[in-house]
Write a structure and sequence with these properties.
The protein is an all-alpha fold. It has helices at 19-30, 35-39, 43-54, 60-67, 71-85. The protein has a domain at 35-86. Helices cover 60% and strands 0% of the residues. 17% of the residues are buried.
Length: 86
């Protein structure tokens, strides 16, 4: 699980994941300040970060809005995550 420094003693599943929380995760966990930085990463590295964002409970459209990565790409990543678990 990933936590922002201003959120203390709470689990992500207990919180509504806001856009600001996702931006905070990107900044503190991956040192990514803008969506452009995420889109220029290598595919495998980008997908790993997106998988982690999906595991926070945020929706596909929300992640797409915050990261600038298309809905379809995030949907494929989430589908792959689900298939790997089964």
């Amino acid at each position: 699980m990933y936590f922002c420094s201003h959120i203390v003693n709470r689990r992500w599943r207990d919180l509504h994941v806001s856009d600001e929380n996702l931006r905070c995760i990107l900044k503190e966990s991956y040192n990514i300040d803008s969506p452009n930085e995420l889109t220029v990463l290598e595919k495998q590295q980008r997908n790993t970060i997106l998988e982690n964002l999906c595991s926070t409970g945020a929706g596909i459209r929300q992640i797409s809005r915050v990261t600038g990565v298309s809905f379809g790409i995030i949907q494929k990543i989430k589908k792959t995550m689900y298939n790997d678990k089964n």
